[in-house]
Automatic annotation (TrEMBL):
Coiled-coil spans in chain: none
Active site: E288, D292, S487
PANTHER family reported for this sequence: PEPTIDASE S53 DOMAIN-CONTAINING PROTEIN, PROTEASE S8 TRIPEPTIDYL PEPTIDASE I CLN2
Cofactor list: Ca(2+)
GO CC aspect terms: extracellular region
InterPro entries: Peptidase_S8/S53_dom, Peptidase_S8/S53_dom_sf, S53_propep, Sedolisin_dom, Tripeptidyl-peptidase_I
Binding site for Ca(2+): D529, V530, G548, D550
Top-level division of the source organism's lineage: Eukaryota
Species the sequence originates in: Postia placenta MAD-698-R-SB12
Gene3D superfamilies: Peptidase S8/S53 domain
Keyword annotations of the record: Calcium, Glycoprotein, Hydrolase, Metal-binding, Protease, Secreted, Serine protease, Signal, Virulence, Zymogen
Name used for this protein in its record: tripeptidyl-peptidase II
GO MF term set: metal ion binding; serine-type endopeptidase activity; tripeptidyl-peptidase activity
Amino acid sequence: MFLFPVGLVLSALLTTASCTPASTGLHVLGRRDSPPSGFTFVGAASPDSVLNLRIALTQSDPAALEEALYDVSTPSSSNYKQYLSKEDVSAFVAPSPEAVSAVNAWLQENDITAKTLTPAGDWVEVQIPVSKANEIFNADYSVFKHESTGKQTIRTLSYSIPEELTDHVAIVHPTTTFVFPTYKASLPAFRKVSSRAANTGVIDTASSCADTITPACLQSLYNLPSTPATQTSNTLGVSGFSDQYANQADLATFLETYRTDMSSDTTFTVETLDGGSDPQDGSDAGDEANLDTQYTVGLATDVPVVFISVGENTNDGDLDGFLDIINYLLAQDAPPQVLTTSYGSSESDVPIAMAENLCNAYAQLGARGVSILFASGDGGVSGPQDSLFCWDFVPTFPSGCPYLTSVGATTGISPETAADFSSGGFSNYWGVPSYQQSAVSGYLSYLGDTYSGRYNASGRGYPDVSAQGENFNIVLDQDVESVSGTSCASPTFASVIALLNDELIAAGKSPLGFLNPWLYSTAASSLNDVTSGDNPGCFSDGFSATTGWDPVTGLGTPDYTSLRTAAGL
């Protein structure tokens, strides 16, 4: 017998009772029967509360965008690395004149003024009170409480648009999406290493690396160079969400302790949006932000690192941040060549229209020559974190998007094995991309009927690659702590790509851009294949690592020397 939280049942009843019947001439664009687990209904939202609503207009030709992305990212293509301009990619997603005209006419009829958010004009924003939103979207915006944090959010369980806009509007947000807060892909397991960083010394012997990871361990394990990068145009971006702040004093101590060959004055720059900031009081230092900046600065020697701090001024949820950071970078003439992000959610928590829109935004950046890497998550086959009651395996978002590189985690050094928390599996939203057909087919043959029906055997597999993910020493408020998670692995692999890009640019060549077609072809044999370990969850042992690609460690971990050759250096 299963007992459901009383709040969830009451929420569904109250919301159903207060919803008005759908009006004629309206098309339901989004609906859910109840809020997701972890949220409870509080009451009707104040009619005067102002909502910042984003409206996604239907993109003109996302299929052509995908074709263009693969054309410039596939080594066998004659257009390999002939990256597109901002204007080029915008043309693929710009809404049709008919869509723009229809949406503008509808907004004007309702005395609403829209603000364009993207270079292509496929996202617009309106600010309207709840009363107006309820009226024009036939919605019932209500207050819901996120139980684990106590925070409240305004959402509706259903919304509609006029029938004549059905072909012109893809999604309105926030409406039925409850990704709040976005879970870090890493849930660091803290272990105190010493009382003060200055007393730790450098840990770089092979025996020590089996228990504690430092930059020296990763340099030795993956043959990473320590020589300084030279190309100032080559930038590595680090995403920051959820009030996670990167501390420069902690970074200086980290470098003094673990990279004595570097100047301790080496630091990162900061860019902010949505009211983001980066306060430098030690008590504000964030474990995730410090991890990501310390291991990018500490591994990608002298590659310029930019910490992009995304605030929460628009709406109350990090999915807004996911959308805003990508639109922020799309608007730049020269975005970072590499972007690493250590946050994610369950795929099912993101409506497919929103997921596809974000995925297409990653494709736009990839077609412009940007390598996008995401940590795959820390719950094995149970999703972003191992905290879900599940039977069917839970894919993570955005790792299922085929236009980015998902990074899983390993542990141990002789040999490396899969970290048991390394999220991996198969998307329910996206099919197997062409670059991955052979790899996924091979693994499915190996798997046979095991777990039949518990995952989507026709889905895009992830992660694509992996790197060390356990027992990373970081400096946090001048103490040394040990953290674990796939969010250790993503900045590590991103640093490898940033170093390769530095050499490529110095040689007069283009950076690597969207990595996957190259990884699954030219570079596949340049990775260290991880063949042991699994990722349990959902009352199972999860998938097993094996020879070749697997949905635990992907194609394997980096070998810089071999990857240099694969990159044409």
